[in-house]
Amino acid sequence: MSLHPSPRRPRRLRASPVLRKLVRETTLHREDLIMPMFVSHVDGQNAEIASMPGIFQLGLDELQHEADAILAAGVSQVILFGLPPQKDPVGSDTWSDTGILQRAIRRLKQAYGDELFVISDVCFCEYTDHGHCGVVAADGRLLNDPTLVNLQKQAVSHADAGADMVAPSGMIDGMVGAMREGLDGAGHSDTPIMSYAVKYASSFYGPFRDAVDSAPAFGDRRTYQMDPANRREALVEASLDVEQGADLLMVKPALAYLDVVREVRDRFDLPVAAYNVSGEYAMVKAAAAKGWIDGEAVALELLTSMKRAGADLILSYFARDLGSRLPSLG
Questions:
Q1: What per-residue confidence (pLDDT) applies to 1?
Q2: How many beta carbons lie within 10 A of that of residue 317, not counting itself?
Q3: Residue 290 is among the residues annotated as catalytic for this protein
Q4: Which tens digit of pLDDT belongs to each residue from 109-127?
Q5: Where are the domains of the chain?
Q6: What is the pTM of this model?
C-alpha cells in the first residue's frame, strides 16, 4: 500500500527536549511572579494557614526571613496584606501611620531598599469589624463615595510609608481616580496603581478569608464584586480604570477566568496581571497531598496557562517555591 502523508508533520518539532524548548511559544519567568505575604500584628507569629499549606501569617519580626526566602528564589516582588490589632467600622488602621501595613512596608524597604519591590493591597475587608470593603450604612449597604475618601487616605499613607506600588482591590466605583488624585496631591505622582480592575464575587476566595479573618459578618460582596457569569462587563470595568489613570490592570481570580484575561489583554495596552488566588492554590495542594497529582508540575502548568492567556504578571502563592525552577529574564 502506498502512503502519501502530508508534508507537514508537526511531530518533527516535538522530537527532542531541545527542539521543544526552541519552538516554545510561552515561557514563564521568575520575574513574572509576585508573592503575597500576610503580615500579623502579633510579634513572633509564624503560623501556617490550615487551608493554605506552606503559607504563613507572619509577625513583623518574621518578615525578613520570608523575604529572604522569596528573594533567594529569584522573585523580587511581594504584595502585602495585613492583620491589624483591632478592627472598627471604617478600618482606620489602614491609614494610621502606625498601622500594620505601614510598619511592614517601612521595615521591608529599610531592610532591602530597591532589591525588593513592595506592593500594598488597598482595601478594608481585613480591617473592618463587619468584613466589608468600605463604609457601611445602617441598613448594610456599602456606601461608595464615603469609601473613596478613606481609600485616598489609605493609599497616601501606604505611599508615605514607602510602598512602591498600591493595588486597590475593593471594586469601588471611582477608586482609581480618587487614589490617583490623592497620591498626586500628596507628592506621590510617581507611585503606580495596579488596579484589581476585574474582580469577581468568587467562591475561590475561601482560604484567603481564613488567612485574614475577612469573611463578611452579614450579606456578601456581590453588590460590588462582579457576577462570575459576565464577560463584557469586565471590559467596562477595565476601561473605566484606564480612564481614571490605572497603570496596570488585574483580573481576579485567574484560573476560571482565562477568557477574561485574554479579552483584557487584547483590548488594552496596559500590563495585565492575573491573581492565582487562594482557592486555586489550596486545590492543588490538597490533591497533591493525596497523591492524586504532581503538585509542582500542575502548578507550573496552571501558571503557564495564565501567561499564555495574556498575563504579564501573576500573583501566586506558588511564587516562593517555584521561582527557582523558572528561567530568568536576566
A1: 57
A2: 27
A3: no
A4: 999 999 999 999 999 999 9
A5: 28-325
A6: 0.95
